[in-house]
Specification:
Rossmann fold, six-stranded parallel β-sheet, 2 domains, about 400 residues
């Protein structure tokens, strides 16, 4: 049913609008879809953290509805308010993200007739093996969502993730791989902005962007800077992000004797200004569905060293557009970091290839692909100017 604007209605359900990568991807996508859709956000767990992406949505005129916060039996108690909110919004289709939210939405939509598109933003196979402490619960939630009567389609962030979802959970549901796209105009503007609290420092600069949690494996990077080659041992490290591991990481920096070379910059709405000024962008994650920060660094910086998590393998070609080393291999990471810091020719070649990759993976292409999935799920014709 078209909204007052004449556009079809899309409800997007997330737990929060905090500084996480999946949340950022969905918010960026929503901005790109606004020209063809009337969009409303529903947050199922708004009290869990600061909604850092909400101001930009408010400025764009995108409504954000926060559901009540429950402390006991929260998952079950949020079903009725969510169902009421969705029925009241009367969307043509609902898009949700993250496994627990996908499951809750699938339950809330039962009997409403409203079509549901699920999106996966993690490395699903790794989540089953390591990241989720109780893989049985993860599987149960995923199966609940994918086998729900309102589920029409799913989107995964990589071809690998799509194949895993299809094999394990959704043999009868269309699953499409759509990479996260880059907003190149925003990245150009943001990377040109100054860094207000930048004192320059001595030596080369290594920047890493991401939530400070165990999966990001920041200790691997810290140890490389403490024990690597001469360029590593001179380098300044800037960590852009926050998370539950920050205290432990600060203690590790002191233990390694590099506390004076590590800046904890905290969460930044614009991390790209830091990345643009880096000599190397470091990405140490043990697991990623895609790796948004790495993808953005390919355009903004281009001198990338990464572990071979599944997300990075969708982005970086080793020796051509960056350097890729085995996951959790500290010695290999230190050697790659030293090489990228020391070899100007390698840096130039990687930057050129990285930029070429970035130019072929735009937010516009991502939004067009999502638009096709959403319209098909809702039984709507293709957008004007596109083939069906």
């Amino acid at each position: 049913m078209a909204g007052p604007s004449g556009k079809p209605r899309l409800a997007i359900v997330l737990p929060t609008l905090n500084g996480g990568g999946a949340e950022k991807v969905v918010v960026d996508l929503a901005h790109a879809l606004r020209k063809d859709w009337e969009i409303r956000f529903l947050l199922t767990d708004p009290g869990s953290s600061e909604d850092v992406y909400a101001p930009a949505l408010a400025e764009a005129g995108v409504p954000v509805e926060r559901l009540p916060v429950f402390r006991k039996f929260a998952t079950l108690r949020k079903l009725l308010p969510l169902r009421r909110a969705l029925v009241r919004a009367r969307p043509d289709v609902v898009l949700s993200a993250l496994v627990a939210t996908n499951a809750v939405v699938s339950l809330a939509l039962r009997g409403t007739g409203i079509p549901h598109v699920l999106s996966e933003h993690n490395d699903v196979a790794d989540a089953l093996a390591t990241r989720i402490g109780r893989p049985g619960i993860y599987k149960a939630l995923a199966r609940l969502a994918y086998h729900a009567p309102n589920t029409r389609a799913a989107v995964a962030v990589s071809s690998h993730a799509a194949s895993v979802v299809k094999e394990l959970f959704a043999p009868d549901v269309p699953v499409r791989a759509i990479r996260n796209g880059l907003d190149l105009d925003l990245l150009r503007r943001a990377s040109a902005e100054p860094v207000p609290d930048d004192d320059g420092g001595d030596g080369p600069r290594v920047v890493s962007v991401g939530r400070l949690n165990r999966v990001k494996n920041v200790p691997l990077l810290m140890r490389a800077l403490a024990h690597g080659g001469p360029m590593c041992r001179r380098a300044q490290l800037v960590l852009v992000g926050r998370g539950e591991e920050e205290a432990r990481l600060r203690a590790l920096a002191s233990e390694l004797g590099i506390a004076d070379r590590v800046l904890f910059a905290g969460f930044r709405v614009n991390p790209h200004a830091w990345v643009a000024r880096a000599d190397v962008f470091a990405f140490c994650s043990d697991s990623e569905g895609f790796g948004c920060a790495l993808a953005e660094a390919m355009f903004v910086n281009g001198h990338c060293v990464t572990t071979a998590n599944q997300g990075a393998l969708e982005i970086v070609e080793d020796g051509k557009s960056g350097l890729v080393v085995p996951v959790s291999d500290g010695r290999a990471f230190a050697e790659a970091l030293e090489r990228m810091l020391s070899d100007e020719g390698l840096r130039a070649r990687c930057a050129a290839a990285a930029r070429e990759w970035a130019l072929s993976n735009t937010l516009e292409a991502q939004a067009e692909a999502y638009d096709e999935v959403l319209r098909e799920a809702a039984g709507l014709p293709a957008a004007e100017g596109r083939d069906g």
